[in-house]
Amino acid sequence: MTIKEKAAAMKLDSTLMASRPAEMRNRALSAMIKALQANQAEIFRANDQDLAEAAENKVPEAVVKRLKFTPQKLSDAVKGIENLIAMPDKVYETQLVRELDEGLTLVRESCPIGVIGVIFEARPDAMVQIASLCIKSGNCAILKGGSETKHTNKILFSLIAQSAAESGLPENCLFQAEQRDEISELLSCHESVDLLIPRGSNAFVQYIMDNTKIPVMGHADGICHIYVDKAFDIDKAVPVLIDAKTQYTAACNAVETLLVHKDAVDLLMPRLNQALREHHIELRATADIADRYDSIQATEEDFETEYLDLILSAKTVKNIDEAIVHINRYGSHHTDCIITEDQEAAEYFMRMVDSAGVYQNCSTRFADGFRYGFGAEVGISTGKLHARGPVGIEGLLTYKYKLFGNGQIVADYASGKKEFHFKDCM
């Protein structure tokens, strides 16, 4: 069966999937946990095979870190599913009840999007997160993982799909696309696929957007900033910066650029520079910092680069407004942070920075669906329509309007015979 044929079958089953009760969807998630735990030795063997092939193919270290599926990552994935099971059901949740006139009642109700195609990078845990979120939200999903994790993804998907089927979910609720050339066919399925979520490089995401009629949700780069204001606490600033750079360097929410208020440089940089050296972080800074702290002088390109490596660009700014202008110009609208004890400055920064996540005094690495209590995420959206930031269950739902009447006709209201009284009932 081709992708197009499979997508069409999934479209037909999408209403069945949406109608499955929360108890059945949660039962499928519980079955997933049991299957993953019972077959972890087989999962890790498959991952070892992926890692061996990555070494043979000289895959970059940043990618290897992502594709490695450790017992801790499996434990985190299971915990994410457990959190999803514990969350209240959001499918067919009443959002609005309005009486337009006597006997004419409007109801807005949440509902699944339908068929979602997710094309994601070389992270086996992404397979688990995305599939579990789609099941919890009542969506059908076409999943295409990176070729670097083909062996791990294959066993993970087989366990997930079997758990879904044995729990009573529709036969066509999940499908794994395994060949690279299937992506092009998927992009042409605009009659069957309701949403695409690509996770990968800027060039890859842009390619998806340029070659499909299907709505696309996601982000490309993760150029995140931390701005150290003049009223900062040094004991907070250094640990936050180090965590944001080193906790998972290859992540899209790792900090890439440091902006320092000119009045904060003398206090911040000696201690920070020592910490950067201890963690083997290369500093690329503007001349005023580079000359004093023996770092590489930054170029314009550095401020436009998502390193995904132990490299940090740095720049001094004369005030908070210059920092905001820099972030809005060079940033990817992902996650940006201010380090300050001045609450007025923090609120101004958070209002003026045009990003999906704006933080005060904490690591940008908190930008994650699991850490937000969403259970997991299908990705992070830097767009402004429908969903923004880490996309959990609510980001995979839309809504419909239901109107309950008793023989009313528009002509009566157009002629003035009847009038709306718009009474909210929630």
Detailed description of the structure:
With 426 residues, this protein is of the alpha/beta class. It has 2 domains: 3-217 and 391-401, Aldehyde Dehydrogenase, Chain A, domain 1; 224-366, Aldehyde Dehydrogenase, Chain A, domain 2 (3-Layer(aba) Sandwich). 42% of the residues lie in helices and 19% in strands. It is built from 15 helices and 17 strands. The chain has helices at 3-19, 22-38, 40-56, 61-67, 71-86, 124-136, 150-166, 182-187, 202-210, 234-246, 265-278, 287-293, 320-330, 343-352, 410-414; strands at residues 94-101, 104-112, 115-119, 140-144, 174-176, 195-198, 224-228, 255-261, 282-285, 296-297, 311-317, 335-339, 357-360, 380-381, 389-390, 397-404, 423-424. The strands form 4 sheets. It has a 7-stranded parallel β-sheet with strand order 10-9-11-8-7-12-13, with helices on both faces. The longest helix is centred in the N-terminal third of the chain and has 17 residues, at 3-19. It is globular and about 80 Å long. The chain starts with a helix and ends with a strand.
